[in-house]
Structure formats: structure tokens, C-alpha cells
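User: Quick sanity check before I run a bigger batch. Here is a single chain. Can you write out its predicted 3D structure?
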Amino acid sequence: MRRSVACRTVTIALALAALAGPANVHGQGAASAQQDDDAAIRRLLAEGYATAVFVTRDEPGVRRAFHPEFRMLVLDDGGVLVVTLDRWLERLGLDGTPSDERVEHRVTGVTVTGDAASARVEIWENGARIYSDHFLLYRFPEVGWRIVGKIFHDHD
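Assistant: Done. Predicted structure follows.
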């Protein structure tokens, strides 16, 4: 009799653990991966965009964060101008000379779905918001997250 009750108790406990355990472990792993992706994207945007473009003016630093096939879409007199990474960098004229301006950035949102993500960044210069940027990113197996697209609003 004791053995039968004990066996049933163990069987019920194992069944409940089997139902609850994997879902909880998987859920925690997915949440952790999501947090890792979010942190990696925020770091990439901070270092490879906000700092490299507006503070250190470091073209190689920008190129490390952006995919070579990056495209920026620019609203232009009711149309859309498509700008490549090389053309954008040429327009920026980054020469490695640090900026004298007080620049801040705020990543105001990151959304990740698998290997695709979007993010919103605000750039502030000397206390005034100058850009609201919307980025598209892909995660590449060999290099991780890279920026592949951008649209923006110039607050000037």
C-alpha cells in the first residue's frame, strides 16, 4: 500500500514537472536571448552610430556597425532618395577629428523578431534634439547584428 501511494505521488510529481519545467526553462532562455539581443543592438547603435558619427567622427567605426549593402531613405521634395553607405559617409566627411559639440543619444525602442530588428534613436546636440532615426537591422551568422537601413527626421 505504501509503495503504491509513493509511486503515484512520484508519478504525479514527475508529470507536473514535465508539463511545467520545460516551458519555464525555455521561457527563461528566450527572455535571456531577447535581453542579449537588445543589449547588443543598443551597444552597436551607441558605438557604431551615435559615437562614431557624432563624437569621434570615425569612419572605420561606422563601417564596422553598418552592413556594406546599407541603404538610407531620404525624403526629398515629395520623393525618396536612396543613399548608399559610401555616399552617406562621403556626405558626412568623417575625418577622425573629435567633435567639440556636447552630443547625447537615446535609444528609445528596440524590437527584435528572430534575426530581424528595428530600433529608434534620438540624437541630441548641445541640449537640442537634432535627429530621430529609425533603423533596420539583421543578425548575420558571421558578424552578428548590422544596420541595413535607416530613415530619419531632421529636427533642424
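Strands lie at 66-76, 79-84, 103-113, 116-125, 128-140, 144-154.

User: Great, the batch can go ahead then.
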